[in-house]
Amino acid sequence: MTYEEILQGLKKKVAEDPLEGTAVYQFRLSGEEGGDFYVDVVEGKSQVHEGLAEEPHLTVSMTVGDFNALAEGKMSTTSAFFSGKIKIKGDMSLALKLQGLLG
After folding, report:
1. What percent of the chain shows pLDDT beyond 70?
2. E strand or H helix at 86
3. Distance from C-alpha of 80 to C-alpha of 69, rounded to nearest angstrom
4. pTM value?
5. Strands 58-63 and 23-30
């Protein structure tokens, strides 16, 4: 998927199945077709925005290819983290919710 396809897919997913709680998930995708976007969750309502969040609770950095593998279920967030394909900074309890957001 391209960056634009990733954004459109996430926008559709969070509209259909919003995350619970309140948090800001920042994604930094590297490589060709990469870019920065964040998912803003406020009391169960989720929105996807392009760019950098002012104060994200969790920042996830990876390549576009690895993001696609996670979204397609070809790789779990746990295996991606332990193999160094995904770098996570911030509230680690939020990292546990990533599979639900991406899968």
Report:
1. 96
2. none
3. 10
4. 0.88
5. parallel
